[in-house]
Amino acid sequence: MSKKEVYINLQGFLANVIVESLTRNKLFEKHYMSLATCISLLQLGYETGAVLGHARGNKLDILNKMLSMQDMIFDNIIKDMQKSEKKRLDDFKKEHGGKPDTFADFIYWPLWESTTGLTLDDLFKPSGTETRERKRKRISDIIQKKLGAKVLPEEAQSRISRFLIKGLGFGSAFPELTAKMFKNVYVCKKNDEELWNITRSLGFATPIDLSKRISLPTTKWRPPTLKENDRKVLGTVAYYTSQYYPELLDSLDLSYYLYLIENEKL
C-alpha cells in the first residue's frame, strides 16, 4: 500500500501524535479517555496549531495544501479559520474586557466552564455559610460527574484535529499575541500555582499535567516555552512533509528539522 493510500491530513497527523503519545503512558486511555483529559488535549492541540501558525505564517499558501476538512469545502482553510478565531478573540475581549493572557484563559477555562457549569469564581470565592470541606466536596462531585464521561480516542483525535486548525488560524493571524500568551505562562500570577494545585486535588488533568506525560520539555509546573514548542512542532511537521509532500520541504524551510530528526538530535 502506498503512502498516498494511507494518507491523512496534516492536522490529523499532528492530533494523532498527541493522542498516541498520551496513550503510550496510560493503558486505559488506549480504549477511552475522560472528558477532562480530552478538554486538556484540545488546548494542547490549539497551542500546537498556534505554534505552527506563528512559525510559518508567511507560508500559509503552502501549508494550506496539506490541510483538508471532512464535509467542509474551503478554497483556503486557514483564511476561514483566521476569520473564525478573530471572532473568538473579539467575543473574549467583549466578555472579559481585554485580550487573553494565556491559552488556558482563551481555550481551556472557557471549555471547562461550559462543560461543568462552574466558573473560576466558584473555586475561589468565599464559601459563605458552606464549610470549605463541603464546598470542595460539592465542586468535586460536579467535576467528577461532568468531566468523568468517557471519550473514545478516535473521537478525541477528531476534535483535537479541528482545534489544531483553529489554533493555526489564530497563530498566523495574531503572531505577536501568540508569542505574548506563551511568555505570560512564565509570569507567575498570584493564584496560578494555587489554581493548578486545586484542579489536581479535585481529580482532573490539566494541560500542564498532560504536557509532562506526553514528553514535552517542561520547567517545574509550567509547560514548554514557544521556542521549545517550535522545535517539537516543526520537527513533527518536517517528518510528515517528508512522508507525504517531500517536494514542499525546502519551500517550508523544514529540511533542517528533518535533519535533526534523522540524526536523533530532536
Tell me about the largest β-sheet.
Answer: 2 strands, antiparallel
How many DSSP H or I helices? 13
Helix and strand pattern: HEHHHHHHEHHHHHH
Radius of gyration from the alpha-carbon trace, in angstroms: 19 Å
Give the strand order, joined by hyphens, for the main sheet: 1-2
Shape: globular
Q: Which helices and strands, and how do they pair?
A:
Layout: H1 10-23, E1 33-34, H2 35-55, H3 60-63, H4 77-96, H5 103-116, H6 120-124, H7 132-147, E2 150-151, H8 153-173, H9 175-184, H10 192-201, H11 207-213, H12 226-244, H13 255-262
Give the structure's gist in a few sentences.
By secondary structure, this protein is an all-alpha fold. It contains 13 helices and two strands.
How would you characterize this protein structure?
The protein is mainly alpha-helical. The protein has helices spanning 10-23, 35-55, 60-63, 77-96, 103-116, 120-124, 132-147, 153-173, 175-184, 192-201, 207-213, 226-244, 255-262, and strands at residues 33-34, 150-151. Helices cover 64% and strands 2% of the residues. The chain has a two-stranded antiparallel ribbon with strand order 1-2. α1 crosses α2 (35-55) and α2 crosses α9 (175-184). The longest helix is centred in the N-terminal third of the chain and has 21 residues, at 35-55. The two termini are 29 Å apart. The model is unreliable at 1-6 (pLDDT under 50).
